[in-house]
Amino acid sequence: MTAPLLELRGLVRRYGGILATDHLDLTVIEGETHAIIGPNGAGKTTLIQQISGGLSPDEGNIIFQGKDITHLPMNQRVHRGLARSYQITNIFRQCTVLDNLALAVQARSGSSMRFWRPAMSESRVIDEARALADKIGLGGRLDTLSGNLAHGEQRLLEVGLALATRPRLLLLDEPMAGMGPKESRSLMPLVQSLSEELSVLLVEHDMETVFQLADRISVLVSGRVIATGTPDEIRHNAEVRKAYLGDEVSA
Ligand code: ATP
């Protein structure tokens, strides 16, 4: 049995009388791409925010690599290998793609306390930034101002900024949102290639993407996980179809 990388135990988050997260249990296994799906208002965003550290749970525990991180601030979670793309980092729109990536690499490596001595030489920072640009498919856009990138390219850059933190688990919150079909097609192979080197927890509305990318899917309804399984198991799960998918994925 592969060790759990992330474990959520009895997580609760209330908004007044609403239980946005209702005693939720979920496990992400090392190396998997795990998708969370569910109807509007099911609690997906609230859940991702608790995992990334933007929101505190009212009850329950978040265990990452065997350590309880329930009350750890966001930056310390990133330092431990839990990064969130889209929202943890903001692109500097007036800077080039290369500079954005180099700044992110330096921010990670500069966590050394020896502030009078750079933790990494400039050329190593630039080399790593170039390699990241190649990985996210922006190797040909190094000198482009990030504000001039197409929407989909900015999304790719955001993933690159998260990757610069060298995560073990990457949280992707609706990466395909607002993307056209052509742009989505460039993100799919990236997520697929990432899954060879790290674990991914993905919230996504686009069912085609989810069923293609995920090793396992958890279905969230009213703050609870009603089913977890392979895409095939979820597709054929009677409770899931009744509560959410209907005939959407049967075609
Ligand atoms: P969507 O797919 O529409 O983005 P979601 O699955 O991400 O929805 P959440 O946004 O997490 O769901 O919301 C879960 C529940 O908590 C909903 O009933 C929502 O109205 C409520 N909620 C979320 N944020 C707040 C808030 N800041 N104050 C009050 N209620 C909130």
Compact description:
With 251 residues, the chain is an alpha/beta fold. The chain has helices at 44-52, 74-79, 97-109, 122-135, 151-163, 181-194, 207-213, 231-235, 238-245, and strands spanning 4-15, 18-29, 33-37, 59-64, 67-68, 82-85, 169-173, 199-203, 216-221, 224-229.
Plain-language structure description:
This protein has two domains: about 130 residues, P-loop containing nucleotide triphosphate hydrolases (Rossmann fold, 3-Layer(aba) Sandwich), CATH 3.40.50; about 80 residues, no CATH class. With about 250 residues, it is an alpha/beta fold. The protein is built from nine helices and ten strands. Helices cover about 35% and strands about 25% of the residues. The strands form two sheets. The protein has a six-stranded mixed β-sheet, with helices on both faces. It has a four-stranded antiparallel β-sheet with strand order 2-1-4-5, with helices on one face. The structure holds adenosine-5'-triphosphate. Adenosine-5'-triphosphate binds next to strand 2 and helix 1.
Based on the coordinates given, report the CATH architecture of the largest domain: 3-Layer(aba) Sandwich
**CATH fold name of the largest domain, please?**
Rossmann fold
Share of β-strand residues = 25-35%
Helix-and-strand structural type: alpha/beta
How many helices? The count is 9
User: CATH homologous superfamily name of the largest domain?
Assistant: P-loop containing nucleotide triphosphate hydrolases
**What sequence of helices (H) and strands (E) makes up the elements?**
EEEHEEHEHHHEHEHEEHH
Could you tell me the mean pLDDT?
A: 88
Helix content: 25-40%
- Count the E strands: 10
CATH first level of the largest domain: Alpha Beta
Q: pLDDT below 50 for ≥5 consecutive residues: which ranges? A: none
Associated small molecules:
adenosine-5'-triphosphate
Radius of gyration: 19 Å
Rounded to the nearest angstrom, the distance between the terminal CA atoms is 33 Å
- Strand arrangement, major sheet: 6-7-8-3-9-10
